[in-house]
Amino acid sequence: MDNLFTTASDTQLGQWLGNWGDALSGLQVVIVTYAFSVIGAVLILIFGWTMSRLMGRWVRSLLTRTHRVDPTVIGFFSVFVRYAVLVVVVIMVLGQFGVQTASIITALGAAGLAIGLALQGTLQNIAAGIMLLILRPFRVGEYIDAGGLSGTVQEIGLFATELKTLDGLYRMAPNSLLWNVPVTNYSRRAERRHDLVIGIGYEDDIEKAQSVLMDLARAETRILGDPEPWAFVSELGDSAVSVTLRYWTKSGDWWDTSRDVTKAAKIAFDKAGISIPFPQVTYSGSLSLEKEPEGA
Question: Which ranges of the chain have pLDDT less than 50?
Protein backbone atom coordinates (compact mmCIF):
# COMPACT_ATOMS: atom_id res chain seq x y z
CA MET A 1 0.00 0.00 0.00
CA ASP A 2 2.79 2.38 0.90
CA ASN A 3 4.48 1.62 -2.37
CA LEU A 4 1.26 2.45 -4.22
CA PHE A 5 0.94 5.88 -2.56
CA THR A 6 4.61 6.57 -3.17
CA THR A 7 4.27 5.72 -6.84
CA ALA A 8 1.21 8.01 -7.21
CA SER A 9 3.00 10.86 -5.47
CA ASP A 10 6.02 10.44 -7.65
CA THR A 11 3.80 10.44 -10.74
CA GLN A 12 2.03 13.70 -9.73
CA LEU A 13 5.33 15.33 -8.84
CA GLY A 14 6.73 14.33 -12.19
CA GLN A 15 3.73 15.75 -14.02
CA TRP A 16 3.92 18.94 -12.02
CA LEU A 17 7.62 19.36 -12.69
CA GLY A 18 7.02 18.56 -16.33
CA ASN A 19 4.35 21.25 -16.62
CA TRP A 20 6.64 23.78 -14.97
CA GLY A 21 9.43 22.76 -17.27
CA ASP A 22 7.21 23.24 -20.29
CA ALA A 23 6.05 26.61 -18.95
CA LEU A 24 9.62 27.75 -18.32
CA SER A 25 10.65 26.61 -21.75
CA GLY A 26 7.76 28.50 -23.33
CA LEU A 27 8.54 31.56 -21.22
CA GLN A 28 12.12 31.38 -22.27
CA VAL A 29 11.11 31.25 -25.92
CA VAL A 30 8.74 34.20 -25.42
CA ILE A 31 11.42 36.22 -23.60
CA VAL A 32 14.01 35.52 -26.26
CA THR A 33 11.58 36.27 -29.08
CA TYR A 34 10.18 39.47 -27.63
CA ALA A 35 13.55 40.54 -26.29
CA PHE A 36 14.77 40.83 -29.86
CA SER A 37 11.52 42.57 -30.81
CA VAL A 38 11.85 45.03 -27.93
CA ILE A 39 15.47 45.72 -28.75
CA GLY A 40 14.59 46.21 -32.41
CA ALA A 41 11.69 48.48 -31.49
CA VAL A 42 13.91 50.60 -29.23
CA LEU A 43 16.53 50.89 -31.94
CA ILE A 44 13.89 51.83 -34.51
CA LEU A 45 12.47 54.46 -32.13
CA ILE A 46 15.88 55.98 -31.50
CA PHE A 47 16.78 55.96 -35.18
CA GLY A 48 13.35 57.26 -36.23
CA TRP A 49 13.32 60.05 -33.63
CA THR A 50 16.77 61.17 -34.77
CA MET A 51 15.82 61.00 -38.44
CA SER A 52 12.61 62.98 -37.84
CA ARG A 53 14.57 65.82 -36.24
CA LEU A 54 17.20 65.74 -38.97
CA MET A 55 14.57 65.71 -41.72
CA GLY A 56 12.70 68.61 -40.12
CA ARG A 57 15.88 70.66 -39.88
CA TRP A 58 16.88 69.75 -43.43
CA VAL A 59 13.50 70.87 -44.83
CA ARG A 60 13.66 74.11 -42.83
CA SER A 61 17.20 74.81 -44.05
CA LEU A 62 16.31 73.98 -47.66
CA LEU A 63 13.26 76.25 -47.73
CA THR A 64 15.09 79.05 -45.92
CA ARG A 65 17.82 79.12 -48.58
CA THR A 66 15.26 79.72 -51.35
CA HIS A 67 14.45 83.21 -49.95
CA ARG A 68 10.99 83.00 -51.53
CA VAL A 69 9.07 80.96 -48.99
CA ASP A 70 7.29 82.62 -46.10
CA PRO A 71 8.54 81.70 -42.58
CA THR A 72 5.05 80.44 -41.73
CA VAL A 73 5.21 77.90 -44.56
CA ILE A 74 8.75 76.90 -43.61
CA GLY A 75 7.67 76.07 -40.05
CA PHE A 76 4.55 74.25 -41.24
CA PHE A 77 6.41 72.00 -43.69
CA SER A 78 9.25 71.22 -41.28
CA VAL A 79 6.82 70.14 -38.55
CA PHE A 80 4.73 68.17 -41.06
CA VAL A 81 7.75 66.24 -42.34
CA ARG A 82 8.92 65.50 -38.79
CA TYR A 83 5.60 64.07 -37.65
CA ALA A 84 5.15 62.15 -40.90
CA VAL A 85 8.46 60.38 -40.22
CA LEU A 86 7.35 59.65 -36.64
CA VAL A 87 4.10 58.08 -37.86
CA VAL A 88 6.08 55.77 -40.15
CA VAL A 89 8.37 54.88 -37.23
CA VAL A 90 5.44 53.99 -34.95
CA ILE A 91 3.99 51.71 -37.64
CA MET A 92 7.35 49.98 -38.02
CA VAL A 93 7.59 49.47 -34.24
CA LEU A 94 4.15 47.89 -34.12
CA GLY A 95 5.22 45.63 -36.96
CA GLN A 96 8.06 44.34 -34.77
CA PHE A 97 5.47 42.90 -32.37
CA GLY A 98 3.46 41.16 -35.07
CA VAL A 99 0.74 43.78 -35.39
CA GLN A 100 -0.87 43.87 -38.81
CA THR A 101 0.32 47.26 -40.06
CA ALA A 102 -1.86 47.06 -43.17
CA SER A 103 -4.98 47.36 -41.06
CA ILE A 104 -3.44 50.29 -39.15
CA ILE A 105 -2.63 52.10 -42.37
CA THR A 106 -6.16 51.47 -43.61
CA ALA A 107 -7.59 52.81 -40.36
CA LEU A 108 -5.39 55.89 -40.52
CA GLY A 109 -6.44 56.48 -44.09
CA ALA A 110 -10.12 56.18 -43.18
CA ALA A 111 -9.64 58.50 -40.20
CA GLY A 112 -7.80 61.01 -42.39
CA LEU A 113 -10.58 60.89 -44.97
CA ALA A 114 -13.23 61.44 -42.30
CA ILE A 115 -11.30 64.35 -40.80
CA GLY A 116 -10.75 65.81 -44.25
CA LEU A 117 -14.46 65.71 -45.06
CA ALA A 118 -15.36 67.23 -41.69
CA LEU A 119 -12.78 70.01 -42.07
CA GLN A 120 -13.14 70.51 -45.80
CA GLY A 121 -13.50 74.29 -45.62
CA THR A 122 -10.62 74.63 -43.17
CA LEU A 123 -8.34 72.43 -45.26
CA GLN A 124 -9.20 74.49 -48.34
CA ASN A 125 -8.13 77.62 -46.49
CA ILE A 126 -4.90 75.95 -45.38
CA ALA A 127 -4.11 74.75 -48.91
CA ALA A 128 -4.92 78.19 -50.32
CA GLY A 129 -2.82 79.84 -47.62
CA ILE A 130 0.17 77.66 -48.48
CA MET A 131 -0.18 78.48 -52.19
CA LEU A 132 -0.50 82.21 -51.43
CA LEU A 133 2.62 82.10 -49.27
CA ILE A 134 4.58 80.17 -51.90
CA LEU A 135 3.50 81.96 -55.09
CA ARG A 136 3.21 85.37 -53.37
CA PRO A 137 0.63 87.19 -55.55
CA PHE A 138 0.71 89.81 -52.78
CA ARG A 139 2.90 90.60 -49.79
CA VAL A 140 2.46 92.39 -46.50
CA GLY A 141 2.16 96.14 -47.08
CA GLU A 142 0.80 95.90 -50.65
CA TYR A 143 -2.58 97.25 -51.69
CA ILE A 144 -4.75 94.70 -53.53
CA ASP A 145 -8.21 94.15 -54.91
CA ALA A 146 -9.48 90.56 -55.05
CA GLY A 147 -13.06 89.95 -56.10
CA GLY A 148 -14.27 93.22 -54.57
CA LEU A 149 -12.17 92.82 -51.41
CA SER A 150 -9.66 95.64 -51.33
CA GLY A 151 -7.17 96.92 -48.79
CA THR A 152 -3.57 96.92 -47.64
CA VAL A 153 -2.31 93.46 -46.64
CA GLN A 154 -1.47 93.34 -42.93
CA GLU A 155 -0.82 89.62 -42.42
CA ILE A 156 -0.98 86.40 -44.46
CA GLY A 157 -1.80 83.36 -42.31
CA LEU A 158 -2.50 79.72 -43.04
CA PHE A 159 -6.25 80.21 -42.60
CA ALA A 160 -7.02 83.84 -43.46
CA THR A 161 -5.49 87.11 -44.66
CA GLU A 162 -5.89 90.35 -42.75
CA LEU A 163 -6.50 93.58 -44.68
CA LYS A 164 -6.77 97.25 -43.77
CA THR A 165 -9.17 99.27 -45.94
CA LEU A 166 -8.57 102.84 -47.09
CA ASP A 167 -10.93 104.14 -44.40
CA GLY A 168 -8.99 102.30 -41.68
CA LEU A 169 -11.31 99.32 -41.20
CA TYR A 170 -10.07 95.84 -40.30
CA ARG A 171 -11.05 93.08 -42.70
CA MET A 172 -10.29 89.34 -42.53
CA ALA A 173 -10.73 87.27 -45.67
CA PRO A 174 -10.51 83.45 -45.90
CA ASN A 175 -7.57 82.36 -48.00
CA SER A 176 -9.73 80.16 -50.24
CA LEU A 177 -11.72 83.25 -51.23
CA LEU A 178 -8.59 85.17 -52.23
CA TRP A 179 -7.09 82.20 -54.07
CA ASN A 180 -10.10 81.52 -56.30
CA VAL A 181 -10.51 85.04 -57.73
CA PRO A 182 -8.30 87.31 -59.87
CA VAL A 183 -6.07 89.50 -57.71
CA THR A 184 -5.09 93.03 -58.75
CA ASN A 185 -1.95 94.18 -56.97
CA TYR A 186 -1.59 97.95 -57.08
CA SER A 187 1.78 98.00 -55.32
CA ARG A 188 3.74 95.23 -56.99
CA ARG A 189 5.05 97.22 -59.97
CA ALA A 190 7.43 100.10 -59.39
CA GLU A 191 5.68 102.34 -61.92
CA ARG A 192 2.03 102.95 -62.69
CA ARG A 193 0.16 104.78 -65.46
CA HIS A 194 -2.64 107.31 -65.08
CA ASP A 195 -5.02 108.67 -67.74
CA LEU A 196 -6.48 112.06 -66.83
CA VAL A 197 -9.53 112.58 -69.08
CA ILE A 198 -11.05 116.07 -69.26
CA GLY A 199 -13.93 117.12 -71.50
CA ILE A 200 -13.71 120.54 -73.21
CA GLY A 201 -16.27 122.38 -75.31
CA TYR A 202 -16.45 121.90 -79.05
CA GLU A 203 -15.78 125.61 -79.52
CA ASP A 204 -12.52 125.48 -77.48
CA ASP A 205 -9.04 125.17 -78.96
CA ILE A 206 -7.96 121.51 -78.78
CA GLU A 207 -4.28 122.28 -79.46
CA LYS A 208 -4.26 124.81 -76.64
CA ALA A 209 -5.84 122.32 -74.24
CA GLN A 210 -3.22 119.69 -75.11
CA SER A 211 -0.45 122.24 -74.65
CA VAL A 212 -1.77 123.21 -71.20
CA LEU A 213 -1.82 119.57 -70.11
CA MET A 214 1.71 118.95 -71.39
CA ASP A 215 2.98 122.01 -69.51
CA LEU A 216 1.43 120.59 -66.34
CA ALA A 217 3.14 117.25 -66.91
CA ARG A 218 6.55 118.86 -67.42
CA ALA A 219 6.16 121.00 -64.31
CA GLU A 220 5.18 118.08 -62.06
CA THR A 221 8.36 116.49 -60.70
CA ARG A 222 6.61 113.24 -59.73
CA ILE A 223 5.65 112.53 -63.35
CA LEU A 224 8.30 110.38 -65.03
CA GLY A 225 10.05 111.47 -68.19
CA ASP A 226 10.38 107.91 -69.46
CA PRO A 227 7.87 106.92 -70.74
CA GLU A 228 7.15 110.48 -71.81
CA PRO A 229 3.74 111.99 -70.99
CA TRP A 230 1.31 112.28 -73.88
CA ALA A 231 -1.76 114.47 -74.46
CA PHE A 232 -4.29 113.39 -77.10
CA VAL A 233 -7.96 113.50 -78.05
CA SER A 234 -9.57 110.30 -76.86
CA GLU A 235 -13.27 110.79 -77.65
CA LEU A 236 -15.80 113.06 -79.33
CA GLY A 237 -18.70 112.93 -76.93
CA ASP A 238 -22.25 114.23 -77.10
CA SER A 239 -21.46 117.53 -75.38
CA ALA A 240 -17.66 117.61 -75.03
CA VAL A 241 -14.35 116.68 -76.63
CA SER A 242 -12.39 114.37 -74.32
CA VAL A 243 -8.73 115.33 -74.02
CA THR A 244 -6.51 112.83 -72.20
CA LEU A 245 -3.18 113.33 -70.45
CA ARG A 246 -1.40 109.98 -70.11
CA TYR A 247 1.60 109.84 -67.83
CA TRP A 248 3.57 107.44 -65.62
CA THR A 249 4.62 107.88 -62.02
CA LYS A 250 6.02 105.82 -59.16
CA SER A 251 3.42 103.49 -57.67
CA GLY A 252 3.85 105.10 -54.27
CA ASP A 253 3.21 108.57 -55.75
CA TRP A 254 0.30 107.60 -57.99
CA TRP A 255 -2.57 108.51 -55.63
CA ASP A 256 -1.33 111.96 -54.57
CA THR A 257 -0.05 112.84 -58.04
CA SER A 258 -3.33 111.98 -59.77
CA ARG A 259 -5.30 114.18 -57.35
CA ASP A 260 -2.89 117.09 -57.55
CA VAL A 261 -2.68 117.01 -61.35
CA THR A 262 -6.47 116.88 -61.65
CA LYS A 263 -6.80 119.99 -59.49
CA ALA A 264 -3.99 121.79 -61.35
CA ALA A 265 -5.60 120.97 -64.71
CA LYS A 266 -8.91 122.58 -63.68
CA ILE A 267 -7.12 125.72 -62.48
CA ALA A 268 -4.97 125.90 -65.64
CA PHE A 269 -8.00 125.47 -67.92
CA ASP A 270 -9.84 128.27 -66.13
CA LYS A 271 -6.86 130.60 -66.56
CA ALA A 272 -6.53 129.66 -70.24
CA GLY A 273 -10.24 130.26 -70.85
CA ILE A 274 -10.94 126.64 -71.77
CA SER A 275 -14.41 125.51 -70.72
CA ILE A 276 -15.33 122.18 -69.17
CA PRO A 277 -19.00 121.79 -70.14
CA PHE A 278 -21.57 119.77 -68.26
CA PRO A 279 -23.76 117.25 -70.15
CA GLN A 280 -26.61 118.95 -72.02
CA VAL A 281 -29.10 118.18 -74.78
CA THR A 282 -29.95 120.51 -77.65
CA TYR A 283 -33.40 120.14 -79.24
CA SER A 284 -33.78 120.90 -82.93
CA GLY A 285 -37.51 121.61 -82.70
CA SER A 286 -39.75 123.54 -80.31
CA LEU A 287 -40.99 121.99 -77.10
CA SER A 288 -44.69 122.74 -76.49
CA LEU A 289 -46.21 122.39 -73.04
CA GLU A 290 -49.74 123.25 -74.21
CA LYS A 291 -52.48 120.69 -73.72
CA GLU A 292 -53.55 118.99 -76.90
CA PRO A 293 -57.17 119.64 -77.86
CA GLU A 294 -59.60 116.87 -77.26
CA GLY A 295 -60.23 114.64 -80.20
CA ALA A 296 -56.95 115.51 -81.85
Answer: 2, 4-5, 284-296
pLDDT the model gives residue 25? 62
Both 72 and 18 in one domain: the answer is yes
Whole-model pTM: value is: 0.57
Residues listed for the chain: 296
pLDDT value for 281: 54
How many other C-beta atoms lie within 10 A of the C-beta of residue 179?
20
Q: Minimal CA–CA distance to 132: which of 89, 82, 76, 90?
A: 76
List, edge to edge, every strand of the sheet that includes 183-185.
170-174, 160-164, 149-156, 143-146, 183-185
DSSP of 138-157: S-TT-EEEETTEEEEEEEE-
Domain total for the chain?
Answer: 3
* Residue 8 near residue 67, CB atoms below 8 Å: no
Supply the pLDDT for residue 240.
Answer: 92
Query: Please, which residues have CB within 8 angstroms of residue 136's CB and are 6 or more apart in sequence?
Result: 68, 70
d(CA 296, CA 262): 54
- Quote the pLDDT of residue 243: 95
pLDDT of the residue at 20: 58
Q: Which of 125, 134, 184 is closest to 158 using CA atoms?
A: 125
Q: How far apart are CA 215 and CA 192, in angstroms?
A: 20
Domain span including residue 168 = 138-185
The domain that contains 49 carries what CATH number? 1.10.287.1260
Q: Which residues make Cβ contacts (< 8 Å) with residue 143, sequence separation at least 6? A: 150, 151, 152, 153, 185, 186, 187
User: Following CA atoms 102, 104, 106, 107 in sequence, which dihedral angle do they give, to the nearest 10 degrees?
Assistant: 160
CA angle 75/79/84 to nearest 5° reads 150
